[in-house]
Amino acid sequence: MEKLGIFGGTFNPVHNGHLSLCTQLADALEIPKVLLIPTAIPPHKRAPELASGEHRLAMCRLAAQSDPRFCPCDLELRRQGNSYTVETLRELGSLFPSAQLFLLMGTDMFLTVQNWYCACEIFQRAFLVAGARQEGEEKQLREHLQFLESLGAKGEIVPCRVVPVSSTMVRQARKQGVPLRGMVPEAVERYIEEKGLYLSKGE
Ligand code: ATP
To answer: Is the CB of 171 under 6 A from ligand 1?
Structure first.
């Protein structure tokens, strides 16, 4: 059965922490293809610092050049409205009926997945794969996996070398005029500069 990785996020912007996590999780579970899916944010939730879906997808496209397994995907942006993971899994299930779906995530998402809309259906449709964002989170992740298993989920925690970057840090660095090198891929840094993203409130 073909394995398909799914990695969703705001990706505002996508950064090296995202990419490093995905690479390590895909390595560990031998996943040949990982979809990078930027989330659509409904207008009433739109933060002043949120780049448009088009920009966030373009940055995922550039970031995907760093690993042949990565594939940018506009499924949630095209759907508009709230991006419910369960709907994404349903759509991918019909698009790739023979694929085994792997939902990749970092600590913060993994610790809340039981509260997501139709969580039990998510657990039926996808195998969860999580890795730490910060040093020392692994024990908490393993304990949480046990709890999720009691709810019917299946998953695996992968020991990861952490890259403690966040999109918030990238946006702050940009405002302070600090070079983004090392936080995002070079092509993403160039894109942010060319388009003048994250300099001030809103765009
Ligand atoms: P923000 O700072 O704007 O809240 P973020 O950096 O947390 O953004 P998201 O797009 O919200 O990024 O995260 C998408 C996914 O990537 C989530 O599953 C999150 O846990 C994971 N993630 C984000 N940063 C890292 C990191 N440095 N290492 C591992 N996983 C990460």
So the answer is: no
Q: Catalogue all structural domains in the chain, each as residue range(s) with its CATH number.
A: 2-164 (3.40.50.620)
Take residue 94 and report the two structure tokens written for it.
Answer: 């019909």
Could you tell me the two tokens for 72?
């940018």
DSSP letter, residue 6: E
Q: In this structure, what token pair is assigned to residue 153?
A: 């989920």
3-class secondary structure per residue, 34-93:
EEEEECCCCHHHCCCCCCCHHHHHHHHHHHHHHCCCEEECCHHHHHCCCCCHHHHHHHHH
Q: Is the CB of 164 under 6 A from ligand 1?
A: yes
Rounded to 10°, the helix 53-63/186-195 angle is 150
Span from the CA of 18 to the centroid of ligand 1 (angstroms): 6
Q: What secondary structure does DSSP assign to 132-183, as a single string?
A: -SSTT-HHHHHHHHHHHHHTT--EEE---------HHHHHHHHHTT---BTT
- Whole-angstrom Cα distance, residue 199 to residue 139? 38
Contact 89, 95 (CB under 8 A): no
- What span, in angstroms and rounded, lies between the C-alpha atoms of 104 and 100? 13
Reference 6, options 34, 29, 39, 33; nearest CA is 34
pTM for the full predicted model: 0.96
Q: Beta-carbon neighbour count of residue 64 at 10 Å? A: 22
The model's pLDDT over 20-63, given as tens digits with 9 standing for 90+, comes to 999 999 999 999 999 999 999 876 767 778 999 999 999 999 99
